[in-house]
Amino acid sequence: MTSKLSNAQIAWRAAQDITDGAYVNLGIGFPEMVAKFQPPGREAIFHTENGILGFGEAPAEGEEDWDLINAGKKAVTLKPGSAFFHHADSFAMVRGGHLDVAILGAYEVAENGDLANWSTGPKGVPAVGGAMDLAHGAKRVAVITDHVTKDGKPKLVERCSLPLTGVGCVTRVYTSLAVIDIEKGHFVLREKLPALTLEALQAQTGAKLHLDGPVADLTVPEL
Predict the structure, then answer these.
(1) Looking at the keywords, is Manganese present (predicted)?
(2) Burial of 98 (0-12, 13-18, 19+ CB in 10 A)
(3) Which residues are catalytic?
């Protein structure tokens, strides 16, 4: 029995909620994995803040064109109809509300939707970067993350202790244990691993989990 989801399984679950034709930005690192798991019959249009819209899968090793990279400096391919453009135009798309979804990683998410995902102190990433714009420019902001830190502390908390990326911006969190919505300043549990009791999940969550109807089983394929 799975004790927690792998990163690939979390990314798979998040991908199931992306609608056909949605304009989507995936955060650097772990969130980029979401692009691998588009459901059959659906195609998202992926945006990268350094100026590409409609890029495709990573090229085969040795076939990279290093003039075509995403914001994480990883090589990409272009799909028919892709476009590339100035960095300023890319941010105009973000700030103008033209992205349907942004899926980001997190160090902390608060029950009011605050997001902290860029700083862990003096040795952390030196600046918030484009995540701040994505957090408030996208129509929907979702987070994918392990449910707890490497030392077992909750990532879902009453209030963030780290510097904020965005205020009240997150509406759904996909974790290694559950799918949780943020509504009216509360964590609302939607799905959890079948073998995990509500009490055990609450013990690993730093704020109260609220129920609004039945809680579905969080089921994903082996990946």
Answers:
(1) no
(2) middle
(3) 49
- Tokens 């129509």 sit at which residue? 139
| Residues 28, 125 contacting (CB under 8 angstroms) | no
Straight-line distance from the first to the last Cα atom of the chain, in angstroms, rounded to the nearest whole number: 14
Among 135, 129, 61, which residue's Cα sits nearest to residue 95? 135
Alpha-carbon distance of 57 to 194, in angstroms, equals: 33
Length of the chain: 223
pLDDT at 211 over 50: yes
Tens digits of residue pLDDT in 183-196 = 999 999 999 999 99
Instruction: Say what the pTM is.
Output: 0.93
Strands (E), the chain: 23-26, 45-48, 52-55, 78-84, 101-104, 108-110, 115-116, 140-145, 156-157, 172-175, 178-183, 186-192, 209-217
